[in-house]
Amino acid sequence: MSLLESFLKYFIQPLLLAAVIAVLIRYFSRVKYERKTFRIAIDRDFYEGRHFLKNALSFFFIAAIVTVLSGVSIPEKTILMYQALGIIALLFGQAVDLSLTAVLATGLITLLCCQFDVRSFLLPDSLNQHFGFAILVLAALCAGFQVALAKEKETEWFTPKVKNGKRGRKIVGYYFREMTIVPLILLLPLRDGTQSAFFWPLSGISDVHFTLFLMPLLVATNVKTFKRSFSSSLGYYRRHKSLQCGMGLLFSIIAAFVPKSSLVLLLVMFLTELIFIVKQSAFDGKGQFWYVETSDGARVVAVKSGTPAAKMKLVPGDVILECNKVKIANADELYQALQKNSAYCHLLVKTMDGELKICESALYADAPHEIGIILFD
């Protein structure tokens, strides 16, 4: 089997195919929901797919350096188990991010089953003593890439979801979901001249053969905010993922010198991840609520890119109090006030912090009503 054939077989691996389907479903679901709720798609750009490819390529080179230099090796059956757990993580991806959990669970299940001599078609017949080290390296990579996905400048990709509040007023929550599949270059040891039907054999030394292969690593983020600013929620997420990345690096070093500690180290990281998932939801719940329908103006739910609203630097959560010197109480009054000057827009806005700001911009000459603001319908 040629290197090209091995490379092409990467694109038919189950986890990669499932992730591509998930990205497509996420895009079409978002656009359909926005058109149904706001009568217009906030952003028709297929940024889910664009980010998926861009991040996969940029992370690939970093991952290649780490895995090749550290000599990470994973049994083929373990890779199949990971892909099965990764697909399960994708199924729950809309509600919670389990991409790092899938890596840690793969290592834990494998080590526990081998320790208690449990046999399965998804378990390798034997494990290298540095298996725990390899899993911890992958966990550190996954957490590090999650930090990179949750960038501050990506706050424009928070998508709104409108719900009915307890007092009859509508509320809106925002969800930040990024996902990619990173190709990892790993070495698969094959003994007694056994050839893998899935990967490309590199070389043979005595009775040990090595196979070069690409393993798909699921990296995803899922941040929601109902009572916090976007930067606050992303900052909290990044801090915890940075901590987990550091733990993974430290624990992998320990496991490299003390292989028997791998099970305990993986268990600690796994429990830390579960605690973080719970604390992340609690963090948002303790915040001050901002995104609620108000009668003292028009609450901005979202802003379309490349529009006058975007040029005025309006952001979700802003409340428009005046338009063209006219006080407004709702969306209808806002659009009526816009008609007073079809070429220019002057807004008095209250930010989420309670500060007042003036926003001004020219309007589209042929469509002054298309300012680019999405409001509660």
Automatic annotation (TrEMBL):
<dbReference type="InterPro" id="IPR041489">
    <property type="entry name" value="PDZ_6"/>
</dbReference>
<feature type="transmembrane region" description="Helical">
    <location>
        <begin position="131"/>
        <end position="150"/>
    </location>
</feature>
<keyword id="KW-0472">Membrane</keyword>
<keyword id="KW-0812">Transmembrane</keyword>
<feature type="transmembrane region" description="Helical">
    <location>
        <begin position="171"/>
        <end position="188"/>
    </location>
</feature>
<feature type="transmembrane region" description="Helical">
    <location>
        <begin position="56"/>
        <end position="75"/>
    </location>
</feature>
<feature type="domain" description="PDZ">
    <location>
        <begin position="300"/>
        <end position="345"/>
    </location>
</feature>
<keyword id="KW-1133">Transmembrane helix</keyword>
<dbReference type="Pfam" id="PF17820">
    <property type="entry name" value="PDZ_6"/>
</dbReference>
<feature type="transmembrane region" description="Helical">
    <location>
        <begin position="7"/>
        <end position="28"/>
    </location>
</feature>
<feature type="transmembrane region" description="Helical">
    <location>
        <begin position="208"/>
        <end position="226"/>
    </location>
</feature>
<protein>
    <submittedName>
        <fullName>Hypothetical membrane protein</fullName>
    </submittedName>
</protein>
<dbReference type="InterPro" id="IPR036034">
    <property type="entry name" value="PDZ_sf"/>
</dbReference>
<feature type="transmembrane region" description="Helical">
    <location>
        <begin position="247"/>
        <end position="271"/>
    </location>
</feature>
